[in-house]
Amino acid sequence: MSQLIAAMASSHAYTFYPPEEWDQRREVSYQRYSRRHGRLPRIPDELGQATLADDQERYQRLLDGFAELQKVLDAAHPDALILIGDDQHEHFVDNVPQFAIYTGERFISEDTERGGVGEYTVDRALARQLLVDAIDAGFDVVETTKLDGDRLVSHAHAQILSQLQPTVPVVLIFLNAVHTPAPPPGRCLAFGRALRASLDRDTAGRRVIAYGSGGLSHFSSGYPYEEYQGAADMGFISEDFDRRVLGWMRDGTIDRFAELTSQELLDNGEVELRQWITLLGLIGEVRPEWLVDETFYRGIMNMGVGYWKVGE
Asked: For this UniProt entry, which segments traverse the membrane (predicted)?
């Protein structure tokens, strides 16, 4: 039987830019927002209270977390890394699947923001098995066998690969998070459980690590505001909602996520929580070894990074 030995999760985007760059990047995002919506966004009051020095001190906790993830990955020597992220019209433009798995032989990952480039192989047998088993479990998963130019550019995936630079085969799983309609939280949890069931049935004896990339609460320049009817604007953060769902993660009470609705995710800047929820379905009711989260209004989001020890 193959085994999920560990799981990791983090936010992305501004998470991988140092606090010294946030003001400049935020201004660029404001202008992007203005071009899309014909006005500049309202500024949250909390932004005026944020300082670079405080952000630098708290951001170090995230850097320490990523350093720990690197140590775990390097020491574990897994046979494969399952990487779960969303796609924002980066690969899927005219057709937007709710779930997709890449089954090609290889790909070149391009972190277009930070310039990281790396070539990776795919565990095609594992990717194909996850695909077939998920379809048998009732999920209409799209198989994608080719990336344009063999290049992976979805930032939810590429930024993680640029950060960790794994040397093992990678299985890419894509979710639809930002394009309405998107799979409800309960469906994402069930999808993760179907992936775990597939691993548990696998007779190849693989030792696998899974990673969920997305969230936490943030209203970005590219948020689906056309579907959103609330009072938040770019740069707002739903701190109370994050505290609630992170509390469920820390307690291992993952069934609570099935009670959430897509509207709640949309209303709280949490559309990318779907990746974390899918990962939790893979993990099961296991408490994280550690889970760090920090709210940064200069960085327009609540950032987080966590690690779960699942098997041996």
From this structure: none
